[in-house]
Structure formats: C-alpha cells, structure tokens
Design brief:
Elements: E1 11-16, E2 20-27, E3 33-41, E4 43-52, E5 55-63, E6 66-74, E7 77-85, E8 88-96, E9 99-107, E10 110-118, E11 121-127, E12 130-134, H1 146-150
Parallel strand pairs: 1-3, 2-4, 3-5, 4-6, 5-7, 6-8, 7-9, 8-10, 9-11
Antiparallel strand pairs: 11-12
C-alpha cells in the first residue's frame, strides 16, 4: 500500500509496504523536503517544519515504531531510522545549520533528542545493549549492517 501526503509547503514521499501512517505540516518557509519510508505494520511518522531549507527523513522497518521530527529555523537536517518493534524516537531541532540523527535497532527503545542552537551535529544509536553517541553524518549507513555497529563497540551475542 502506498500512502502519499503532500502539504502545500512541504513535499512528503511516503512509501508503505504495509499499513502505516505519515503526516507532514509546514508553514512560513520554502525549500523543505520530507521523506518517509515504512515497511511493516502499525508504524507512524510525523514531521513538522517551520522555516526554510529543512530536510527530514524517517525510515521504519518493523512493527509499531513511532518517529517524529520537528524543525524550526533554517537549514536543519534530521534523520530517524528504526528497525525492530515498538520503538519511539522524537527529534526536535531549533536554530540554523544543525544536523542530527537517531538510529534504533531492537525493540521497546525510546529516544528524545533536542537540538537547540546553531551549527551543531549529533547522533544517537540505540540497541537493546545500550546507546552510543555517533556522528550525525554516520546516519547514511544502514543500521542492519553489522560493521556499522562494530564501529561503536557493539558485539554480537
């Protein structure tokens, strides 16, 4: 099933292989991009943007994951990647030229990241074994790849 949500000021691309929801809101700005991809059932994604030149991406693979990104200011980039079940991630950015990501692999994980100010870069990776601080730029790597986690000291059973 594909679900496409388009707001007049924010472009949303939502692809759901199964049942999921995606919502986007935007006001007072231009050049905003929102991308949502969902595989599985019961996943929910929401993005709200106020300002200009923001980019938000939520990627969910699993069941009953919830991801939310809120951006205000200018030129903020936020990414939420979830693989597993019953995970919850909230990312809030206020300011200019910020970059942040939250990566969750496992189940029943929760993250609430607030980034306030300008020119900041941060990332959080969570598994059922713990949380790791990562570079926001490392969000380009897919969390399913074991080598990705080895970089941060994660070891298999």
């Amino acid at each position: 099933m594909k679900r496409l949500a388009v707001n007049l000021v924010a472009l949303v691309m939502a692809c759901a292989v199964s049942v999921g929801t995606a919502d986007a809101q935007g006001r007072f700005g231009t050049k905003r991009v929102v991308a949502v991809s969902q595989v599985g059932s019961g996943n929910g994604a929401a993005v709200a943007q106020d300002g200009a030149a923001h980019a938000a991406r939520i990627s969910q693979n699993g069941v009953n994951n919830a991801g939310q990104i809120t951006q205000a200011g200018v030129n903020n980039t936020g990414v939420v990647k979830q693989k597993g079940s019953n995970n919850n991630a909230t990312l809030s950015q206020v300011g200019a030229n910020n970059e942040a990501c939250v990566v969750q692999v496992g189940k029943n994980l929760s993250a609430d990241v607030v980034q306030q100010g300008d020119n900041q870069s941060l990332g959080v990776a969570q598994t059922n074994r713990g949380a790791f601080a990562i570079k926001a730029s490392d969000c380009k790597y897919e969390p399913q790849v074991f080598a990705y986690w080895q970089r941060y000291g994660y070891k298999a059973n």
